[in-house]
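Possible regression after last week's pipeline update?

I re-ran a chain I had predicted before the update to compare outputs. Posting the input and the new output here so someone can diff against the archived version. Not blocking, just want to make sure nothing changed silently.
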Amino acid sequence: MIIQEVIKIIEEFAPLPYAEDFDNVGLLVGDSTNEVTKALITLDTLEATVDEAIEKRCNLIISFHPIIFSGLKKLTGRDYVERTVLKAIKNDIAIYAIHTALDNQHKGVNDMICEKLGLLNRKILIPRKDSIRKLTTFVPTQHADQVRKAMFEAGAGSIGNYNDCSFNITGKGSFKGNEESNPVIGEKGKIHFEEEVQIGLTFPKHRQSAILKALFDTHPYEEVAYEIHSLENENQHLGMGMIGELENEKDEAEFLNEVKKTFDSGCIRHSKLKGKSVKKVAVLGGSGAFAINQAKSAGADVFISADFKYHDFYKAEGKLVLADIGHYESEQFTKNLLYSFLSKKISSFAFILGDTNTNPIHYL
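New output (post-update):
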């Protein structure tokens, strides 16, 4: 396989259009047309990670975090970022980063945390806006089924747990072609009325090109009439963080000790305990202070995340317990998630789970 073929499969799972605007995702180093020998899957890409790829004869690193975050103006090896990139280039190793594209997926980073905690009834904590679009088109009645089916197969008409969703209205369309037209139905220069079906369906914005191609390929008209609108609806299957429930309520201290053990945290920094049992838990892998208010509004008893600053803990206001388990610790199972997905999708190809510990934080 070539690198681009592997990337295509990754981005079916976590489309890059859903990464946050501040992020730097996709192929960061390398030629997408190169053939892949083996791929190393890791949380971070550092010099030691590139060394592991060299040792294991991998020429593609699939990383959660991007090693290049802000622009590089020089490549002189003056810091760990430049040294890592230089070593990868010298050894013809490509680097691909997925980061917040996976953070925002329903079955992504935060679902993995919920799985480790055994949370039930999981929901997105901060559903994403501006990710749903609606297409309306007009098709001759006898062609409506084939056009609708083609758009379904291209990814349109999925709403939560339901597929092949559309709304259809029958009516009569009119048109008159000019001298340069070549109408499939009717005659140029004469107004024509045709029994048509108005088909309306929603779709995730990253599927727009494929859906339009399906529409144009199957629609019989020379000129296809269609409209696309961005919807304000929140996408309940896409967004940051998750919230779920424990099967049985637990004592706060008991629960936090279980979390510490599960995630092998050196310590858990937390706000004052409320003296109440824990049932509802919100999670957000990585830096999650921006979601404290959403966790409170959702009625969470505990919010598990990382990188809380001193004043962030005041925001608990006695309404929930804020638990900082560490950035690395909260995202450490992400590479397992990617490994499991890719190994099932490409069973004939060698994916290797990186074993380099890239956690920069140590505890006494």
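Follow-up from reviewer: compared with the archived run. The mean pLDDT is 96. Marking as no regression found.
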